[in-house]
Amino acid sequence: MDFKKLENEYYLGDTLSIAKDLIGKYLVIKKEDSVIALRILETEAYIGKTDKACHAYNGKSTERTKTLYMKGGTSYIYFIYGMYYCMNVVTEKEGEAAAVLIRGGEVVKGIEEASLLRYGKEFSELTNYQVKNFSNGPGKLCKAMGINKSLNQTSLLSDNFFIASHIAGIENKSYDIQLGKRINIDYAEEARDFLWRFFV
DNA sequence: CTGCCGATTTAC
DNA sequence: TAAATCGGCAGA
Question: What number is the average pLDDT over the span A10-14?
Fold first, then answer.
């Protein structure tokens, strides 16, 4: 299996550019004898310096948010609503709190393994509704890929958890990328209107 | 230590 | 439309 992994420099740039560019890239997780890859189709940017929706807005630093200040290419995975995990890619240089939330995508490899993780059933047993809602949300895709807090602060340059621009045998697609307001951040005052959501 | 709330999902 | 479900966080 051959993956073209994104390099360190990729993650050090402008967060909004990265959030847009990650559309069509692949989040890959390797287990002991399986691989799951997700084509990213929806992202959101969070930038501490100017963004009241960001967990690390205005220099806020706690045990959880210190991850956001790490160097670009680190994973930021947090637990939310008592049940779900959200997967983010930390961006920009160390000391700058910013990240891209992976909000949705489609599994392009390892769908059987992912189906067991997501629903505890074989993929062939799923209803159309379950297939349609397989990984079209941040909590859903984490469940489908087995992503949890044990992977927090992992370097995405590592061998078993990374983002690829291409996977052997899988055809890349180009998309007309849409902009929109981010989801479920009504508390964030003016930042709620920032067009920092990217989707196809 | 207490109490509220959330970058969500699902069932009713 | 509302319940599920609990770690993170602020405030006392």
Answer: 97
Which nt has its C1' nearest the CA of A87? B7
- A134, A52 contact by CB (below 8 A): no
pLDDT at A169 (0 to 100): 96
Q: Which ranges of A6-63 does DSSP label H, i.e. alpha helix?
A: 15-21
Nucleotide showing the shortest C1' distance to residue A65 CA: C8
Residue nearest to nucleotide C6 (CA to C1'): A82
Burial of A124 (0-12, 13-18, 19+ CB in 10 A): exposed
Closest-approach nucleotide to residue A152, Cα vs C1': C7
Q: pTM of this prediction?
A: 0.96
Taking a C-beta distance cutoff of 8 angstroms, is the pair A199, A175 a contact?
no
- Report the SS3 class of residue A154: coil
Q: What is the pLDDT of residue A92?
A: 98
- HSE-up of residue A67 (Cα within 13 Å, Cβ side): 23
Strand B–CB A138 distance below 7 A: yes
Q: Is the pLDDT of residue A1 over 90?
A: no
pLDDT per residue over A88-135, tens digit each? 999 999 999 999 999 999 999 999 999 999 999 999 999 999 999 999
Q: Within 7 A of a protein CB, which nucleotides of strand C?
A: 4-10
